[in-house]
Amino acid sequence: MVVNSVHWFRKGLRLHDNPALQEALNGADTVRCVYVLDPWFAGAANVGINRWRFLLEALEDLDCSLKKLNSRLFVVRGQPTDVFPRLFKEWNVTRLTFEYDPEPYGKERDGAIIKMAQEFGVETVVRNSHTLYNLDRIIEMNNNSPPLTFKRFQTIVSRLELPRRPLPAITQQQMDSCQRKIGDNHDQLYSIPSLEELGFRTERLPPAVWRGGESEALDRLSKHLDKKVWVASVEHTRVNKCSLYASPTGLSPYLRFGCLSCRVLYYNLRELYMKLRKRCSPPLSLFGQLLWREFFYTAATNNPNFDRMEGNPICVQIPWDQNPEALAKWAEGRTGFPWIDAIMTQLRQEGWIHHLARHAVACFLTRGDLWISWVSGMKVFEELLLDADWSVNGGSWMWLSCSAFFQQFFHCYCPVGFGRRTDPSGDYIRRYIPILKDFPNRYIYEPWNAPESVQKAANCVVGVDYPKPMVNHAESSRLNIERMKQVYQQLSHYRGLSLLASVPTIQEEAEPPMTDESQTSSGPDSPHRDPGDDAAGGAIVPDSSTSAAPQDEDDHCCRTHRVSAHSPCTSTGSPAPLGCHRSKPSSPSSCHAASPSPSPSTQTSPRRSGGGGARKERRSHRQKARHARESKREVEEERMEEEEEVEDGEERMEEETAGPQQS
Amino acid sequence: MGNAIFSCCEQKPSVQAELRSESRLTWRVTRLFTNNRRRRKPVRMKRGLQENELKDGGGPSGECKRTLKRLCEPTRERAVEAEGISWEHLPQEILLHVFQYLPLLDRAYASQVCRGWNLAFHMPELWRCFEFELNQPASSYLKATHPELIKQIIKRHSNHLQYVSFKVDSSRESAEAACDILSQLVNCSLKTLGLISTARPSFMELPRSHFISALTVVFINSKSLSSLKIDDTPVDDPSLKVLVANNSDTLKLLKMSSCPHVSPAGILCVADQCHGLRELALNYHLLSDELLIALSSEKHVHLEHLRIDVVSENPGQQFHTIKKSSWDAMVHHSPKFNLVMYFFLYEEEFGPFFQDEIPVTHLYFGRSVSKDVLGRVGLTCPRLVELVVCANGLRPLDEELIRIAQRCTQLSAIGLGECEVSCSAFVEFVKMCGDRLKQLSIMEEVLVPDSRYELDDIHWEVSKHLGRVWFPDMMPTW
């Protein structure tokens, strides 16, 4: 039988370590590499010019590499669901291969395509290579719910076998065996579109700081490793002002588009470490950024609402302000805080900013100063940031805005001091906000505090040539810390957990009052306490005990108990209906049964269900997961006693409190 | 059998167990009328009670127990035979109890079931607490309390309200709406009132007179206010006088951080008259020696919490000092009181602070603070319990932390943000404090590896001294 393969590129824009592409080549008579792109959709989507440019460059590089193997990239215009039936018939396709996409949107799209392929009698082969690990396996090992603290995640990862070894790049020989003639009209039909064709204006577009494509990625990888050798010899390097600029060894955008395989990076780092240190196994911290990426992918893979506050089971509902004007000032770098504005300018111009810079602007927009929803910030990053993965972007924003992944310390980055620590001379600011370049170092982070004479001498009067600061940071951070505490203390789930800097207070009568809970505004598990007079009767109990409370002698033990009993804090604690689930703890194995999703690396054609079905499956999976979480509580109580591992007790407790749970 | 259910709980069951069983009942009842499965009701109810008994080793207690008994025992048997319990005969106490656990919307649905349930819906006990959520679609993502509901509450239940709070978004309209409601609360007697700005402080945007007249309606009509939270509002001295004139005997808690229209004299008047005051939150500019003396007068109950926000309006602001003798008087009068201080100052403004001993227990530095000041903290804050340093310069805080560990023997919680500490000094600090450090939140970047410890070693070393597993706080590298 003739095998006509199509490999569908989405992410994973590379020829090295591409297992799905290898499957396409395997025993095939013909192979075509396809990228599906909808130019009309492109213009409308919320993706900025830098990201499109990066993508197009990556496609060109791919096409270029394929040319060297006497093949080409077929860029097909349209929507996948429209394109594939046409291609299947036209090319007499028998096998469709692509990389597994762990994100909910991708899973749904792929489900529909797989179903469609089935109808056309086309075999589909899906392989996992965008993440190091099989995410479903991590979730399974955490009792069928994604780990919500990084520590817990690391613990699980350390119990997993090493990620699969990367595959070599496809070879001329492999390609030759499934060669077909490229049509003369190939460029006419399947060329890579230009930015203009996608509706972007390119007259004054500066050259790209980050050049897309696999070749560039591999080039950077070797420089990156050289630098690591150097860094390893110097030991601890503090973040300095050089770190703020785009580095020729930076890799994050390449991982995002899959121009570089994360496994290739993983094994290169590992081998380098073992060569340098002569220790057999490197610490997990070596793979920091790769693991964070994995962490957020795991948290998001079964949560289609991961990118929003409403309906997102791990996200705390916070009464953010809607303020389009303030949001625009932030997004366009007009906040009046040079540090913030420089970062946003760099982001817009180049498409990348350092991770501490991301922390600074994300904190400023959300819990630090403007009290604007993280979702708005995430969307701006989605437009501008080259390495914005849906999962990593959403997850990081939730983290930095304290919306998920519980932290007890609401530390706000100062929009003046934080930058100054990193770059005391302010050269970074001068580069991205030239109007401020003549300010003396002393005032460059806070020009509004410069005497008028200094402002005039610098040819930049604040309020005229550069905006005044849009908020009083001291005032707004004070207010916001207060509000954040309010939000967390209202969540019965967190009550009794100490938050740092949460001031003790007298127990008020009947606090908090019953809300109008026709809405769920106060959070996923809004508490309602007994409002009766007998509630507290003016008893003096420092609530939300900071460790100051004398009765919290055994704080740790106390907390563990509270959490496991699911009735945190005071006697009037929330009667959470789910807390009464006291039936015999179901065995861990029965939990496992709740996740029947097929392993992504199996041949899925007969097993996968299509779009609608997939959604239903997911929903029921979510319900099961929720159920599993309840029973997990019980299971873990039991296991807690048995298990010897010291580290786990605390971690698990953290874990339980890491995300609010929806009842 | 029925007797057996209740006879085994002579000793008072734990509150938690009680709550659990009650909420279970609630859950079942709601399930019942939402699912509308008539036939299975009696059986379910029976099983539910048995499970309670089995699992909790006890059942509901007190009043509730007796009524339950009265209700369930005969009814259940009858019900089993008659295939249907007469829910309309559920006594009001039980209904009330159930209703207390239901969200308002569910109560509203339930009230449509029958006349009895409708009466229960309007029982005063259910309307003591209410939180008005006032949001505009343009400025908030959250829904607001329905205006019709607000109208109904004011019409039918305003005399029942006792514990009221307003959550107001950043819009002026919402703050105005809150004032409108406040000014209609003429025939009620509130015990607690909270005006909470959930985003920007929108009450500040209202004309002062408008806000004051609404607030004083409550002060005048509610003669027994015990708790008042009015942070970030334009409250002023005359309105505090009205508060004092009407509520001086009952006021226990007053939070009024960032109320720019109040003067030191205004707050002094409150302290002079309200002898039951146990918690007070205000800005530093309102703090005076006289105020502390007034709070430590013999007539005054022990103060429990005093929270002071020290915020500078513009850089270089001069701050007054408080005499050591005034603080001494406070400590003498209320030996256990918590003094919580939030500092949001520029580094050069710390001059007047931490020169003399100060009984601060919770200390929060919201922006960068110098090594010098932290050094003084070790010398002057013997009662320190919790310390949070959000930022410091680039020089490590080693000696300062060690000194704090030595001198502040009560210290049990610490958080460090943008600072630096060498790993050795940090380990030493933890060793000195030992397991009294209940909370230790240190950003990973804070710890600077040195010749003795690497970052990978430190969590073991610290865990060892704490007697529990510890890791530094991490932020995602992204």
Automatic annotation (TrEMBL), chain A:
<feature type="binding site">
    <location>
        <begin position="289"/>
        <end position="296"/>
    </location>
    <ligand>
        <name>FAD</name>
    </ligand>
</feature>
<dbReference type="Pfam" id="PF03441">
    <property type="entry name" value="FAD_binding_7"/>
</dbReference>
<dbReference type="InterPro" id="IPR036155">
    <property type="entry name" value="Crypto/Photolyase_N_sf"/>
</dbReference>
<dbReference type="Pfam" id="PF00875">
    <property type="entry name" value="DNA_photolyase"/>
</dbReference>
<feature type="site" description="Electron transfer via tryptophanyl radical">
    <location>
        <position position="320"/>
    </location>
</feature>
<dbReference type="InterPro" id="IPR036134">
    <property type="entry name" value="Crypto/Photolyase_FAD-like_sf"/>
</dbReference>
<dbReference type="InterPro" id="IPR002081">
    <property type="entry name" value="Cryptochrome/DNA_photolyase_1"/>
</dbReference>
<feature type="compositionally biased region" description="Acidic residues">
    <location>
        <begin position="637"/>
        <end position="657"/>
    </location>
</feature>
<feature type="site" description="Electron transfer via tryptophanyl radical">
    <location>
        <position position="397"/>
    </location>
</feature>
<dbReference type="InterPro" id="IPR005101">
    <property type="entry name" value="Cryptochr/Photolyase_FAD-bd"/>
</dbReference>
<dbReference type="GO" id="GO:0003677">
    <property type="term" value="F:DNA binding"/>
</dbReference>
<feature type="compositionally biased region" description="Basic residues">
    <location>
        <begin position="616"/>
        <end position="630"/>
    </location>
</feature>
<keyword id="KW-0157">Chromophore</keyword>
<protein>
    <recommendedName>
        <fullName>Photolyase/cryptochrome alpha/beta domain-containing protein</fullName>
    </recommendedName>
</protein>
<comment type="similarity">
    <text>Belongs to the DNA photolyase class-1 family.</text>
</comment>
<dbReference type="GO" id="GO:0045892">
    <property type="term" value="P:negative regulation of DNA-templated transcription"/>
</dbReference>
<dbReference type="GO" id="GO:0005667">
    <property type="term" value="C:transcription regulator complex"/>
</dbReference>
<feature type="site" description="Electron transfer via tryptophanyl radical">
    <location>
        <position position="374"/>
    </location>
</feature>
<keyword id="KW-0274">FAD</keyword>
<feature type="region of interest" description="Disordered">
    <location>
        <begin position="509"/>
        <end position="663"/>
    </location>
</feature>
<dbReference type="GO" id="GO:0009266">
    <property type="term" value="P:response to temperature stimulus"/>
</dbReference>
<dbReference type="GO" id="GO:0032922">
    <property type="term" value="P:circadian regulation of gene expression"/>
</dbReference>
From TrEMBL, chain B:
<keyword id="KW-0677">Repeat</keyword>
<dbReference type="InterPro" id="IPR001810">
    <property type="entry name" value="F-box_dom"/>
</dbReference>
<feature type="region of interest" description="Disordered">
    <location>
        <begin position="44"/>
        <end position="65"/>
    </location>
</feature>
<dbReference type="GO" id="GO:0042752">
    <property type="term" value="P:regulation of circadian rhythm"/>
</dbReference>
<feature type="domain" description="F-box">
    <location>
        <begin position="84"/>
        <end position="130"/>
    </location>
</feature>
<keyword id="KW-0963">Cytoplasm</keyword>
<dbReference type="GO" id="GO:0048511">
    <property type="term" value="P:rhythmic process"/>
</dbReference>
<dbReference type="InterPro" id="IPR036047">
    <property type="entry name" value="F-box-like_dom_sf"/>
</dbReference>
<protein>
    <recommendedName>
        <fullName>F-box domain-containing protein</fullName>
    </recommendedName>
</protein>
<keyword id="KW-0833">Ubl conjugation pathway</keyword>
<comment type="pathway">
    <text>Protein modification; protein ubiquitination.</text>
</comment>
<dbReference type="GO" id="GO:0005634">
    <property type="term" value="C:nucleus"/>
</dbReference>
<keyword id="KW-0090">Biological rhythms</keyword>
<keyword id="KW-0539">Nucleus</keyword>
<dbReference type="Pfam" id="PF12937">
    <property type="entry name" value="F-box-like"/>
</dbReference>
<keyword id="KW-0433">Leucine-rich repeat</keyword>
<dbReference type="InterPro" id="IPR032675">
    <property type="entry name" value="LRR_dom_sf"/>
</dbReference>
<dbReference type="GO" id="GO:0005739">
    <property type="term" value="C:mitochondrion"/>
</dbReference>
